[in-house]
Amino acid sequence: MKVSVNKWLDLVDRAGWTAIQAASGALLAYIVTNNFTWEQALTVVGTATLVAVLKVIVGQKTGTDETGALIGQPVIEPPPK
């Protein structure tokens, strides 16, 4: 069974969720502390999102299959052949 992965949707999904998670953490830090500015929050979210995008690109180009996984094992079962 051939598995096909839409690389753009994969990138948007993975990096998008990372951005949401980072934004949630930055928002919490902003609410809880008095020393966390919006500029710092945007820097945190932007950096996390950029790292996620780079990870997906590297995974898609160097992984053992088309899934973009870097853990050395297929993330889809049964593994693509």
Write a compact overview of the structure shown.
By secondary structure, the chain is mainly alpha-helical.
Give the tags.
single chain, 81 residues, mainly alpha, 2 helices, 63% helix, 0% strand, elongated
Describe the structure.
With 81 residues, this protein is mainly alpha-helical. Helix content is 63%, strand content 0%. The chain contains two helices and no strands. Helix 1 (7-32) packs antiparallel against helix 2 (38-62). It is elongated and about 55 Å long. The model has no long low-confidence stretch (mean pLDDT 80).
Main sheet: strands, sense, barrel: none
Relative helix content: 55-70%
Mean pLDDT: 80
Distance between the termini: 7 Å
| Unreliable stretches | none
Q: What gyration radius follows from the Cα positions, in whole Å?
A: 16 Å
Number of strands: 0
Shape: elongated
| Total DSSP helices | 2
- The ordered string of helix (H) and strand (E) elements is HH
The portion of residues forming beta strands comes to: under 5%
Supply the number of structural domains: 1
User: Which class do the helix and strand fractions yield?
Assistant: mainly alpha
